[in-house]
């Protein structure tokens, strides 16, 4: 089977390619942009340049693809909501035209209540846009991905390591369901051979905790003791994002979008990981310990 991956040079895409080559016989058609280099060299990996602004380039990339994995998110762009919608709509349209059997999309967990952040609103809209042309969509919804290449993990690690006292907004107590990058990749891989009809949601996650608790758990591991937390009612995200960029290296625009999403709970209320993958997700403390050791080796 030919597995197309749009967003293949990103954190999840790179890990997914390695997983598919190591554990399956699938062929991979992997995307890269003009400003990017290609990734893993293997006889079953074909790298094709893509331009999601262009109809013909999108159509040409999808030629021969059986199952498409869509991993695009334009957080670094100022108008990322409009850009994500346009890219997803174009991809769904040409996936239908080129006979793609299914799209697997990695999005974010969407809480039931109103008032979504721009980031989560865009994640939800992207899933709908991909499905709008009629190609079946398996939408994997995840909270915070924990992996060395994950921007979310980089924020957690460096904030908990460098700041003994963490000044957090009141809403940092909102609940999340972090999950190891490897587990998210395992979920995507497990869905490739699953029959899909319509637009189906698959929430995944490990333990449920507050974002502030996740930072404290990380601090206990990387510093040997928990960070002190000070919760503030007034917390201007724009200023906080500038501080996060200086402390963690995560670009201000991305930090701002991610921090804005902390106002929404992102816990898995119908966790389907074990059902699909056939095992439980890794426990968070074990994941944080392993990643902390890997960070020290870098």
UniProtKB/TrEMBL annotation:
SUPFAM superfamilies: NAD(P)-binding Rossmann-fold domains (SSF51735)
Residue ranges of every copy of the NAD(P)-binding domain listed in the record: 7-109
Coiled-coil ranges (or none): none
InterPro entries associated with the record: NAD(P)-bd_dom, NAD(P)-bd_dom_sf
Record's protein name: NAD(P)-binding domain-containing protein
């Amino acid at each position: 089977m030919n597995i197309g991956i749009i967003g293949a040079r990103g954190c999840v895409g790179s890990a997914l390619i390695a997983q598919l080559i190591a554990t399956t016989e699938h062929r991979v058609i992997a995307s890269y942009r003009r400003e990017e280099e290609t990734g893993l060299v293997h006889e079953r990996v074909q790298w094709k340049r893509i331009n999601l602004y262009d109809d013909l380039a999108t159509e040409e990339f999808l030629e021969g693809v059986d199952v498409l994995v869509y991993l695009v998110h334009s957080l670094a762009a100022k108008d990322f909501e409009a850009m994500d919608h346009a890219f997803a709509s174009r991809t769904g349209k040409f996936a239908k035209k080129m006979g793609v059997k299914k799209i697997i999309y990695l999005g974010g967990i969407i809480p039931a209540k109103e008032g979504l952040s721009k980031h989560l609103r865009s994640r939800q809209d992207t899933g709908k846009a991909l499905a709008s042309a009629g190609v079946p969509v398996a939408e994997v919804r995840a909270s915070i991905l924990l992996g060395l290449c994950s921007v979310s993990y980089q924020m957690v690690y460096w904030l908990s390591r460098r700041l003994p006292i963490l000044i957090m907004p009141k809403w940092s107590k909102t609940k999340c369901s972090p999950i190891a990058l490897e587990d998210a990749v395992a979920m995507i891989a497990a869905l490739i051979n699953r029959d899909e009809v319509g637009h189906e949601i698959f929430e995944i996650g490990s333990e449920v905790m507050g974002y502030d608790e996740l930072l404290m758990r990380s601090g206990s591991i990387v510093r040997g003791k928990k960070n002190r937390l000070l919760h503030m009612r007034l917390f201007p995200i724009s200023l906080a994002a500038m501080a996060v960029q200086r402390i963690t290296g995560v670009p201000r625009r991305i930090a701002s979008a991610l921090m804005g999403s902390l106002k929404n709970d992102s816990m898995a209320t119908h966790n389907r990981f074990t059902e699909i993958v056939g095992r439980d997700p890794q426990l968070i403390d074990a994941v944080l310990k392993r990643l902390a050791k890997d960070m020290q080796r870098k």
